[in-house]
Specification:
By secondary structure, the chain is mainly beta. Helices cover 13% and strands 37% of the residues. The protein has one domain: Pnp Oxidase, Chain A, CATH 2.30.110.10. Strand 4 (51-56) and strand 5 form a beta hairpin. The longest helix is centred in the middle third of the chain and has 9 residues, at 70-78. 26% of the residues are buried.
Length: 190
Amino acid sequence: MPPALKLITDPRREAVPISDFADAMSTLASGVVLVTGWVDDRPWGMTVTAFASVSTEPPTILVSLGSATRSTLAITATRSFGVSILAEEQLALARLGSEPGTAKFLEPFVDPSDGSNASPVVAGALAHLDCELSDAVEVADHTILFGRVHAAQASGSGTPLLYHSRAYRTLGDRAGGRLPTERTLTCLSC
């Protein structure tokens, strides 16, 4: 077993100004996902770009949500959540899920016929991952939620919705739609 990591910080070093940090982070293009769960027995979803694959064995992902959000409180209480990867046609849904301080109930957007998952599945999403909360780590004002993936389904077609420079974006028309790759690993960080 590897030794525990120890974070070494220098208390004399000042933090970067928030505006500089936000400007730098806005240059990173990210996929857009809706983290789904149940609030008052109704489907609920929150739009995030802080989502990543952690491991393929066992299949594990992470999402980062504001610690005080209704989504985080519901997920930590139920210990389950879903992640729907949004398609470019789902811009209105992405905006609904990212609107601060508003109810994010999803009845018009979920697939009512899909009872195979514990979490609400967004109809028309490129993929959906059904997860069990395996760990939650609070960092600053956010909680990083780690989920073990118990079910995964992909649509097999479609174009992702992206977020870059503080705006939703699409890939646009590209020849073939995919870049060639020689990579055969199941884990891109391995």
